[in-house]
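Technical appendix A lists one of the benchmark inputs used to test multi-chain prediction within the project. The record comprises two sequence entries:
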Amino acid sequence: MRAERDAAGRTPEDAATPVPEKSDAEARPVDPFDVSLPSRREARAEVAALAAEHDRGSSTPDATGIRDILLATDLQLSGHEYSESDGHFYATRVFKGGREDGQPVFVGHGFYREGSGHLTVPTGTSISFYCAHREALPGLSGLAIEAGVHPGLPVETFREGDQVPDYYLTKPEATPPGGFSVFENSTTVRAQARLSDLLVEGMGHTHWAACREVQ
Amino acid sequence: METYEEAEALWGGPTLTLKITKSDLDPEAVTRRLRLTPTASAGPGFDPYAPLSGSDGRWFLDSDTSGRASQFTTAAGDLLVRLTAASAAIRDLVDEGYSVQLIVRGYSGPRSTALVAPEVLRRIADLGLPLVVVPSTNER
C-alpha cells in the first residue's frame, strides 16, 4: 500500500516536514534519499525520463536533441525557498539561474480564452513564441527556452506596436504523472494572469514558454 | 480513510468556470443582473483567434486560481456559494435562451484524478446547470 500523494508528488508526511532553510543548494550536501531535494543526477534522470516520455507520445523529432542540450547545461537545483505567493512554489522543482542573456521568460500553463482579443505590444518590448497559435508546447521545449538553449527559432515574434492574442498564464502546476520544472530567473504567476497584465514598456525581448491552446 | 493500492495524483490547476453565451449577449447587462464581476467577457462578434468558437457574446466567471490542486474543493465551493446566491437570475437567463454551463478544467494524465467533493456536486446539482469536464494533457 502506498501513501496518497498530492499533485507535486508529496505525501502528507512530506508536506508536514519542514524543509531546512538554505541560501544556496551547495550549502548542504545532497542526500540522494531526500525526495524533497533530488540530487543533480536524479534531476538529470528526470529530464531524460521526460524526454523519453515525450518521444513516445509525440512525433516531434527533436525531443531527444533538446534533452541532450539540456543535459549539457549543467543543471543544478536552486536552493531558494518559495512561499505560496510565488508562482515558483507550485513547480515540482526549480533549477538555478536561467537564460544567460537575462531576457524575461513567461512560464506556466498557457491558453487563449475565446473572446479575449488582443493587446498591442508596448514600446521597447517584444515577445517570441515557440509553438503556433492553438498548439501545445512540450515541457522540454519550455525548459530549453527558459535555459536559453532552445535549438529552434521562434515560430512567431511580435514587436512593439504589433497586435498579439491576449493569452492567459497560470501557475506551473504539474500535469500528472509528470513534473513541472522551472528556472529561478523565469517569470511565473501564482494565479492566472493575462499577457496584457504581464507585458509592460521597456522589457526588451521576452519569451513565452507555455502553450497557446484555445479554450 | 480509504486507501488505494496505487497512488493517484490530482489534476494540476483545476478550475471551475461559469460560462454564459448568447448571440446578443451584453456583458454589462449580465453583470448587472447577476451582480457578479466576470473574470472575462466579450460582446458578440467573430474572434479571429478562436474561429471555431462562433460569434456569440461571452461571459466567464472562474473560481480562484491560486492555491494548490488540493484546495480545489474550497475554491469551487466559494464560487458555487456566489452562484447559488444568484441562482434566480441565472435561471431567468436560461429561460431567456442563454446558454449557461459550468466547466471543470484541469491538467491530467494517466492515473490522475479530479476530486470533486460531495458538497460541490450537491451545489452544482442544485443549480441545475450542465457540467462539462475538460481535461487537458498539455505539459505547459
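The mean pLDDT of chain B is 93. The helical segments of chain B are 27-34, 72-85, 87-95, 118-127. Comparable benchmark entries are summarised in Table A2.
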